[in-house]
User: Fold these one by one.
Assistant:
Number 1:
Amino acid sequence: MSATPDENVKEPKSELIYKLEDRPPVKEALFAAFQHLLAIFVAIITPPLIIAGALKLDLETTGYLISMSLLASGISTFIQCKRVGPVGCGLLCVQGTSFSFISPIIGAGLNGGLSAIFGAVISGSVVEMFISRILRYTRKVITPLVSGIVVTLIGLSLIKVGVISCGGGFSAKGDGSFGSMENLGLAALVIISILIFNRSSNRYLRMSSIVLGLAIGFVVAYFLGRIDFGQIESYGGFNIPTPFKYGLSFDPAAIIGLGVVYLITAIEAYGDVTANSLISGQPIDGVTFQKRASGGILADGFNSMLAGCLNSFPNSIFAQNNGMIQLTGVASRYVGYFIALFLVILGMFPAVGKIFALIPDPVLGGATLLMFGTVAAAGVRIISTQKMNRKAILVMALSFSFGLSVELVPEILSKFPQEISTLFSSGITTGGIVAILSNLLIRIKE
């Protein structure tokens, strides 16, 4: 009798306290879940804050978008950990609002408002769900080189958004306060605070460094008169999810722009599931792993579609939680249920979203600038794993040249038809398409 593919695969050695199918005592599960929550909370609420700031949305709408992001992340995390039919990876995989989509979403919102954003979020998610069904073939097209280029472009594009926040945000450009010493000082305070806590030997301080940095910036901004709690009319009540609250419209350029990022996100999700499986002592090859990977990517797309229906933004698997599993020694997927519960509860209270909506742009900018730099560095790290031959250099040169050109000099597209200029206005979309095509078409005999 021949062995199955999984029987031929040796499971990596593990020093886990609680393995994948173990059920920790409730007290320990709650503590592990809270640690995961510290690692992801700021990352979940930051994209809606940035998008709302760029679109100049009011406090009420901003707070609601933050709440729905928390709610959608909670539901998405439960689906990933539980595995509902073929949807989900069945690992301790936490999902949250993705940074990767911020630039194309802002572009879509500036052209068509929130209805165009949610229409593109829902429509574009089909790309990732489709990729999950043909995973073995797409890996030949979306190579690590292409993924690394796009992830780097995502980080570099977002750094611009972070710098604008540090200067005071888009509103400060209108009132003349952009780049003031007060704005830059607040941003610098947050950056320095995060760096100090991140260098600490205490793992809890290191783990919550971004939360603590934001808290310090928030308090200082309050004493500077930059925060007005009087803007919040009420802290009570519950958020009742209202699907399609802002309507739906379908802009082809926005859908294509998000579709390209969904394509790359599928490959990122594959890498995250692989890392999580390895850390959790599960096989990283064979039939079981392939089911986990395809289920995880399918859930990535399905959960993003669900998020769009709930007036939230695309969700993706968070890589930082893999580090948390290593840190705590807890890989039990049942902990994910508690993480999901925390997120849903936070999303149901409007006060949470409204308070975080008051964070001044420079305070948020200080934290996001570091986060976005980390995204770019992660892309460089992926690229560095590849052989740097002539073809790779050419693909990189073309992709970065085209991608950064439309980010740095958007006027270059001013003479094109509006549909074309809208589609290629995002450096991520332009660079991503060029990376895929050039990687496929360039042939060099060494």
Note: The beta strands are 95-97, 315-317.
Number 2:
Amino acid sequence: MLDLLYCEAAKLRRRPLFFFSAASSALIPLGCALFLPDFQGFTSGAQAVEGMMSTLFQMSAYLILMPALVVLASHLLFVEQDCGALKNLAAVPVSYPALAMAKMVLLLLFAIAFMAAGGLVNLGILLLSGWEPVGFWRLFFVGLGQGILMWSGSLPCILLAAALDQSYMITVIITFFYTVVNYLFGMNEQFITQPFGINLGTLLPGPMTFRWYFSYLDLTTPSAEMASLLERISPYFLSTAQVFLAAGAETVVFLSLIALVFRRRGCSGGVSHVESDHQ
């Protein structure tokens, strides 16, 4: 498994799309710092940290990371088929499920790196602006956790990408719809005020992660509007154990299905190539 992961990582040297996608985590924080007047309205370092990190959690993770994961997964899942390497894999004792899992682990590392890069960009902006980064590292590690949750939440679309077998346009359309739904549901009280259980407020990554990371923000002196919102949603906050238990269960299910689809597609593709060579 480690050898497969190393081989997948080695391919990235020829794939600048991965590095560009990771660097895109800086786009929204930089845009907020340069163009939003609210950035200049912070009154303390702690408030500035929470404002910048909230932007990373609410926008970069949903609107950039999740679609990027599916696009990169589509590339990883089909790269051997595109270059005709499946026939070589069919002649070597390579486990297709293990190969699929190596690709998924690489995507997980990418998701963590994406959130880490965005957090460090935020830290640089705060320091250059003269703010003391009070509470930054606590929210930085929350951001890494959200990267893991976004990876887990993207697995249904990755499964779809594997099952559609290079139908990139359809995959992109469905991923866009899925991303928008998660973003909107994560801001909708109807979905963030559902109990922990089998419901959309728990199963979808948008509302689930909001109910987790929001509890880590400093809400000791909220405005009147925020205090009213907290009174309604705070009973539905999720603990770290609850969030990762739900995400872990979903991850096991979807990784198993991805491995199954990839094995069937890989074996059929490898066999067809081998037969054509003999003919």
Note: Residues 270-279 have pLDDT under 50 and may be disordered.
Number 3:
Amino acid sequence: MNIILLEEHELGRSLPRRDERTIHLLKVLHKKPGDDFEAGILGGKRGTGRIEKINLDGSLSFIFNGTEMPVSRSWLRMAVAFVRPIQLRRIFRDISSIGASAVDLVGTDLGEKSYRDTKMLLNGGANAALIEGAVQARDTLIPAFTVYSSLDEWLERSPWHCGDPKQSSFARAPILIAMDNVRPEGSIFNLSSSNKPLVISVGPERGWSDRERDLFEKAGFLRLSMGARALRTETACAAAAVIAMDKFEE
């Protein structure tokens, strides 16, 4: 853990003995009463925590001093097809760590339908993965997360038009990209530098159907590739995000 993230309601309370944050502080970092650690409030300020004492029941008493407002998340929104739950967890973690502002989970024509029943969406696993990514990046903010039953629904709702108008990135029309290595119109490597926000959609490992490609075209998306190889969805997500972020100009 690069930062200990706390919920607002945990302030003034002790962290339980078996809490992974307690274990990390005491067993991994070997912190003792009086020691400081980097901490933050989920969705709020970053600052410093200090261990006050280790209680008889093994719980950990601490105080928190928040001194820094979190840095806004980036101008990047990613839509990802349903894939295996173990892959989804890694994708959510990496997208959060990279700093995307939102991640949308989308049902697709060629994706395995059974993946849509993943328990991650019911037991808090998706949120936990997003928090894990924020912890890796020393961030207190996590991406907004939404599920759409189909690409049709996602395109119809166009959630990229619902950003905070106070943030300059959302005030500009985004560049819309569908990653496609089967019938691409060009390469993401040739994307021109821009100060516009980006919306990137990544399909399942079997790719997009021709029907979905037509939907993208009607919605104004560019279909871009990263080469002829069929990548794992998790690899494509991380690579496309990093390449796109390199093209962004403040």
Note: The longest helix spans residues 85-98.
